[in-house]
Amino acid sequence: MPMQQISILGCGWLGLPLAKALLEKGFSVNGSTTSENKLSILENSGIKPFLVAVSSEGIQGNSYDFLKGSDLLIIDIPPKLKGDTNENFVKKMQNLVLEIQKSSIKKVLFISSTSVYADTENTPVITEENTPNPDTESGRQLFESENLLLNNPKFSTTVLRFGGLIGEDRHPVKFLSGRENIENPDGPVNLIHQQDCIGIIEKIIEKDIWNETFNAAAPIHPGRKEYYTQKAESLGLEVPRFNVEKKSVGKIIISNKLEAILNYNFEVMDRNF
Predict the structure, then answer these.
(1) Which of 131, 136, 178, 271 gets the highest tally of CB atoms within 10 A of its CB?
(2) Domain extent at residue 134
């Protein structure tokens, strides 16, 4: 049986270690980057590198060869909607879909976010049964992009809504350290470690689970003030200061469906992660 080939659009913080993990499982991997100086990093890791940039105007680079021969595409390019950047992410996905339809791709795994659910004062417990109600532009465009992919009859899509991404070199406490007047001290955290992100994606591929939507956050949800204070102290960082006067908003993301269908156990989930 020939080695199965997977294309990963976006070999960044998650996409690159994911590609390496899939190579170890025996897959061959086409990986894309928008940065020329990353091509050699991909190639040296055993990934077939492609310079591909998806924009609202169209696609630059050799998207044909990037997708050619793969039956699975993993889309891992988050919307750039912070600060002054206000891209049309949905239009980007529409342009990408046109290319997918012309290719050998039969399955799509779309990396989305739990930001498709709003934070509210009653701190709801959220499962996949809850209808998304995004309150940010990023969440709105992600939810629209999810539906664009899920409703396309030319390929099967599974959507994976990750909580806040953390890993060895990436933790939101580094951004919050020393800041003052931070809102939502009692809002629960919904985080997921890079190791679990990769483990879950591997399970979806291994079990061939398509036309599904999964929430994915570690099943531990201390309040933001409690969690980030303890985390800052453990890393020797200046403790962030929260505004406790204003009522907190939040949500608790439940991943029971994923644990049941994929038979997945979260690996990184103690209170110190």
Answers:
(1) 136
(2) 5-166+192-218
Q: How many residues does the chain have?
A: 273
Report yes or no on 240 lying in a domain.
Answer: no
116's torsion region: left (phi>0), alpha (psi -120 to 50) or beta?
Answer: alpha
Other C-beta atoms closer than 10 Å to the C-beta of 16 total 20
Is residue 49 a part of any domain in this protein? yes
CB 212, CB 149: distance < 8 Å: no
* Nearby residues of 209 by Cβ (< 8 Å), 6 or more positions away: 158, 203, 261, 262
Contact 46, 179 (CB under 8 A): no
Q: What is the pLDDT of residues 93-108, one digit of tens each?
A: 999 999 999 999 999 9
Q: At 143, phi and psi to the nearest 5?
A: -65, -40
d(CA 183, CA 247): 9
Give the CATH number, domain containing residue 158.
3.40.50.720
pLDDT digits (tens, 9 = 90+) for 140-152: 999 999 999 999 9
Instruction: Tell me the whole-structure pTM to 2 decimals.
Output: 0.96
What burial letters (b/e) apply to 229-257, b meaning 16+ CB within 10 Å? bebbeeeebebbebeeeeebbbbbbbbeb
User: Based on the structure, what is the number of domains in the chain?
Assistant: 1
